[in-house]
Inverse folding.
């Protein structure tokens, strides 16, 4: 296989997404590896036969709390090693990070915390971000070839949000969150989508509180597949698929040369 196709997708509840045609979409073979966030389920909560019949094996890391958070990966390429969590208990209890090794490349599927429910979760988010970047830096010393995908719950620059002025005090676009992403990219991570697509008005999430905003494309780009500097030259293509609608997010895509 000369290249690997990866999708990252916050499904906002895998059972809800399945009811909206998620498996039919999987049948179109959108990627070799599909990383999901906010599954809100465990492996036993749904029948996986149709998914496995498509050639995907499945790996789950669910939250302790029922119907909350959680990540999973469906992959047609067998991983050499799977790591559940990061060893950071508070994060692992919420089922936030699942890691798969393919040869010398590690794929990290992460569901970053949201701070929208109030100050307590916003503080947790900042703490989580600080711990996670330290974890990633340590990981990179051992393995410089990393792919980090997921719902980061942060729009980076003004181009990544439909109304930057109106949202300057909104969680997900706060100066300290954006500064964390500045630092993250300055430390040698590549925004794979922006590497291929410099154009504006490309978003991956639309608020459900206002039903018309998706049709009007008033969104945020908060879902990413980013790679370390060592993999920059391997980026073959990157895309966002706003027409795929099983969630308030849409899938984001990266094709990377092996």
């Amino acid at each position: 296989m000369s290249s690997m196709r990866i999708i990252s997708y916050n499904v906002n509840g895998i059972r809800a997404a399945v009811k909206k045609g998620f498996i039919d979409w999987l049948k179109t073979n959108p990627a070799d590896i599909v990383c999901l966030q906010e599954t809100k389920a465990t492996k036993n909560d749904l029948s996986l036969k149709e998914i496995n019949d498509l050639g995907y094996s499945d790996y789950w890391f669910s939250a302790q709390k029922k119907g909350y958070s959680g990540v999973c990966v469906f992959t047609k390429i067998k991983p050499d090693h799977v790591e559940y969590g990061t060893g950071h208990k508070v994060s692992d209890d919420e089922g936030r990070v699942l890691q798969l090794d393919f040869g010398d490349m590690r794929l990290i599927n992460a569901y970053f915390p949201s701070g929208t429910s109030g100050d307590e979760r916003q503080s947790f988010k900042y703490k989580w971000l600080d711990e996670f970047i330290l974890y990633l830096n340590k990981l990179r010393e051992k393995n410089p070839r990393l792919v980090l995908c997921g719902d980061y719950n942060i729009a980076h620059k003004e181009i990544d949000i439909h109304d930057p002025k109106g949202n300057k005090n909104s969680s997900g676009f706060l100066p300290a969150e954006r500064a964390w992403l500045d630092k993250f990219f300055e430390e040698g991570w590549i925004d794979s989508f922006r590497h291929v697509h410099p154009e504006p008005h490309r978003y991956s999430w639309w608020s459900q509180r206002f039903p018309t905003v998706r049709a009007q494309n008033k969104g945020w780009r908060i879902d990413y597949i980013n790679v370390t500097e060592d993999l920059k030259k391997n980026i073959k293509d990157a895309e966002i698929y706003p027409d795929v609608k099983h969630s308030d997010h849409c899938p984001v895509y990266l094709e990377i040369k092996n």
In short: The first helix runs from residue 14 to 19. Residues 160 and 221 are 5 Å apart (CA to CA). The chain has one domain: 3-257. Residues 3-257 form a domain with the Deoxyribonuclease I; Chain A fold (CATH 3.60.10.10).
